[in-house]
Amino acid sequence: MRASLIQIAVDEGEPVETRRRRVSSLVREQAGADLVVLPELWTTGAFAYEDFGREAEPLDGPTHEAMAKAASDTGVWLHAGSIPERDPDGTLYNTSLVFSPAGELAAAYRKIHRFGFDEGEAVLMGAGRHPVTVRLPGTTLGVATCYDLRFPELFRRLVDAGAETLVVPAGWPERRRSHWTLLARARAVENQAFVLACGTAGTHAGVPQAGHSIVVDPWGEVLAEAGPGEQVLTVDFDPGRVAVTRDQFPALKDRVLGLEPPRR
């Protein structure tokens, strides 16, 4: 399987509609890939909190329209990163969109863990409640977003639902880049799965972004890693290695669930 992670640079001076057209062109340039992945909140920037409400759109809004057409024109599975979604009841969500090669919406995932510690995204957006997997030819995707990467329980739930390839779009800050790489590798090792983690470049509302999108195999080995700027990171990987790894080193079968509370 060939995956292309498009590490978009978010320039605050670039109008959102201009960026949609530019990103659509970047997706179309990935003809020959099986899966294309975009970052989190690339229309606004993950830290541009003041823009969330102004740029929020319905699930079937302009980003959905542009990305569905780009996916169908290119014939790829497209994880279109996430958008600030406005629900009909007015609630905002950080929502990821996954499109089939026919341009159909295959899945939408509302980010469960919101970043901000009672500020920013944590108060401006609602929390998703449901983990999401998507079946592709040859592998099942488990979908997570940015701050979710710090919460291993979500990834266990995805693996229990059949996930073999974990896809994590993000707007991760440069000052915590070491955590980004560490956590991506940890989620791969503990779940014996591929991790495709796609970040942004540029600066969001004064917050420099980490870039360094990364692809990790089920043993925790880094197959490819981007630099800090806008870049397309393309890697060929064999989804069949997940089953082989889990068979050769069957650690997942030794999980102990339903532990009693610690003794005091």
TrEMBL record:
The record's listing under Gene3D superfamilies reads: Carbon-nitrogen hydrolase
Family matches, as InterPro entries = C-N_Hydrolase, C-N_Hydrolase_sf, UPF0012_CS
Q: Which UniProt keywords apply?
A: Hydrolase
Q: Does the keyword Hydrolase apply?
A: yes
Q: Which GO terms describe its molecular function?
A: hydrolase activity
Homology family? Belongs to the carbon-nitrogen hydrolase superfamily. NIT1/NIT2 family.
* Protein name in UniProt: Hydrolase
The chain positions of domain CN hydrolase read 1-239
Has UniProt tagged this entry with the keyword Amino-acid biosynthesis?
no
The residues that cross the membrane are: none
